[in-house]
Amino acid sequence: MKQLSVKLIAFLVVIIGISIAIFSMMAIERIDSGQTGVIVNLAGSDRGVDDAEVKTGWVVYNRFMKQLFEYPAFAQIVDYEPFDIQDKKGTIFKTDPTIEYYIERDNAKVVFLKYRKTTKELENTVILTEVKNAYKDIAGIYDTDSLINNRPAFEKEVEELLKERLSKRGFTFTNIQSSVKPNEVLQAAIDAKNTAVQNALKVENEKKAAVAEAEKEVATAKGKADANRIMQESITPALIQLKAIEKWDGKMPLSTGNGAMPFINLQK
Fold first, then answer.
1. What share of the chain is helix, strand, coil (3-state, %, to 5)?
2. N or C terminus: which one in the chain shows less Cβ crowding within 10 Å?
3. What is the enclosing helix (H) or strand (E) of 96?
4. Closest CA to 27 of 55, 58, 54, 48
5. Which of 140, 167, 182 is at the close of a domain?
6. Phi/psi at 96 (nearest 5 deg)?
7. Which residues does residue 85 pair with via DSSP β-bridges, in sequence order?
8. For residue 71, how many other CB atoms are within 10 A of its CB?
9. Confidence of residue 166 (pLDDT cuts 50, 70, 90)
10. What is the structure's pLDDT at 75?
11. What is the pTM of this model?
C-alpha cells in the first residue's frame, strides 16, 4: 500500500512537471484589431507559414516551434531622409519623401513569404528601394527647366508609379508628400537669374515712371505756353480800355496831358 502511494505521488509529480513544461513552452498573445498576425513554423517539414491565417484576437502557440509576426493593417507613415535624383540632363535634385502605406490582411502572408522581414525592415529595404527607383525613373524623363516648373505634375507621376509597383509587392500605397529642390549650385544660379530679372523689371519700371513724369512735365509746360499765347492774343487795345472803364470810379482826373479825355477813343 505504501509503495502504491509512492508510485502515485511520483506519477503525479511527473504529470505536473510535464504540464508545467508544456505550459512554459506555450505562448498566449493578443493580436490587436489593427494588426494581422502570421504564425510561422520554425522547425520540421512544415517550416514556413501555416495554412491558417491569424487575423485578430487571442492566439496560443508553441513559442519554441512557432513564431508570431504581426503586420499593421492600418496606415503607416514613413518619413525618409533626403536623397539625390537626376533629370534627363544629369542635373541633380534633392527630394525628401514622406509616404503612407499599409498591408491588407489578405496580403500579410504573401508579404512575409516573399520577404520574411518585419515592417521596419521592409520600410528600410524593399519599400525604400521602390521609392528611390520611382523618383529616379520619372526624373529621368524630365528636362531641368521642365522639372523646376512642373513639380506638382512630376510628383503626381511618381505617386502613380509607386502605387503600381508597391501593389505588385503586396503593399497598399495611399499617399506621398515631398519637396523636390535643385542642388545648391543650380539653386544659386536660379536665385541669381531671379535677382537679375527683378532688377531688370525695377529698372524698366523706373524708366517708364521717368518717361511718364517727363511727358507730364512737357504737357504741363505746353499747357502753360498755350494758355499764355491765348491770353496774349486776346489782349487788344479795346479790351484794355474796357478793363480800365470797368475799374473807373466815375471821377474825372484833375489834370490830363494835352487835354485828352481818358478811356474814350473817339476815332472810328
1. 55, 20, 25
2. C
3. none
4. 58
5. 182
6. -135, 75
7. 93
8. 22
9. very high
10. 87
11. 0.58
